[in-house]
Design goal:
The protein is α/β, with parallel strands linked by helices. The chain is 27% helix and 23% strand.
Length: 324
């Protein structure tokens, strides 16, 4: 893995910019793909990796008004997407590639590209919010408009999936969850999932999901598998329901039977994290509910290369945070 520690001069903020002293970061599967060179083979190097973290504002440039010295802030994944619909320009501003990320002692950011996390969370917890939590929130709240009493089918027990579980319950909806690991499945049930299924033992889980809804089908699917699971997700969804496309853990290309999609008016919705305004809305909801992210473990930032390298093994449940 092409990671090495280097020394750089401390950044100096210009107009509208701030410097954040990082206290914690968290890992996403995207970070591993970026470091391995498979996420974007054309990425210019050198690159500071990682997109998610939290820290304190230690310097401000001229004209900064949104934050002040000493504020605890999380960077937004898309530095240029503050609100509204995505555009090509906004989607070119992610941290951790193509922009330098947060795996540094001090990070230079735009004041428009940070939010204040919920005050009840620890640094390790707040560091998990920018990608995984906001992706789940965007799918279920911004795009899905999940209502109390609806049923959400969630794949897996990774970071996005467990945030989706917590948000589903926060919205008063019903959560079904699938996993390949019975221990993780039991943990999800302990967290409040209404029912769970080991998909290795029962690959045709769409029939199980429909049975859980008296044959009607689920209202929403959090689809993180991709090519290997999309067909089954569509089969599990009710007419007019939505499949929220988030991950491609089982592949990015697939043959799809389109008749079921349009004959039942099923919505396929691509989800790419979200904007700052949604992040701020989510933080207010999490603060009100005193919601805490599910942490698999907290490790020292010095262990970044080996911890990131083991991410593909999928042994973790929830998020992994690195403490500076």
């Amino acid at each position: 893995m092409g990671l090495r520690r280097v020394e750089r001069p401390d950044p100096t903020p210009g107009p509208g910019q701030i410097v954040v002293q990082m206290s914690a970061m968290s890992l996403n599967f995207r970070d591993l793909l970026m470091v391995e060179g498979t996420y974007n083979p054309k990425q210019r190097l050198p690159l500071i990796p990682l997109s998610d973290g939290v820290g304190r504002v230690v310097a401000t440039g001229p004209g900064v008004r949104r934050v002040k010295l000493g504020d605890r802030v999380c960077p937004t994944f898309f530095q240029g997407w503050t609100s509204g619909e995505p555009t090509m320009e906004k989607l070119k501003t992610p941290l951790g590639g193509p922009l330098d990320g947060v795996a540094a002692e001090r990070v230079l950011l735009s004041e428009e590209g940070v939010v204040v996390p919920p005050p009840h969370m620890t640094d390790a917890e707040a560091a998990t919010l920018p990608c995984a939590a906001l992706t789940a929130w965007t799918a279920l709240v911004q795009n899905g408009g999940v209502r109390p009493g609806e049923t959400v089918l969630i794949q897996g027990t990774g970071g996005v999936s467990l945030f989706a579980l917590q948000i589903t319950l926060l919205l008063g909806a019903r959560a079904l969850i699938t996993s390949s690991n019975d221990t993780k499945l039991q943990r999800a049930l302990d967290l409040g999932a209404d029912a769970g299924l080991n998909y290795r033992q029962e690959p045709g889980w769409a029939a199980w999901a429909r049975a859980q809804t008296d044959g009607r089908g689920v209202d929403h699917v959090i689809e993180v598998g991709g090519a290997g699971t999309l067909e089954e997700s569509i089969k599990a969804t009710r007419p007019g329901g939505a499949v929220h496309l988030i991950g491609v853990l089982s592949g990015a290309k697939t043959e799809l039977t389109l008749t079921r999609v349009f004959m039942q008016a099923i919505r396929l919705l691509g989800v790419l994290v979200g904007h700052r305004e949604a992040f701020e809305q989510m933080n207010r909801a999490f603060a009100q509910a005193k919601l805490r992210p599910v942490l698999d473990r907290e490790v020292a930032v010095d262990t970044l290369p080996e911890t990131l390298g083991k991410l593909s093994q999928g042994d973790h449940l929830g998020k992994i945070s690195l403490l500076a």
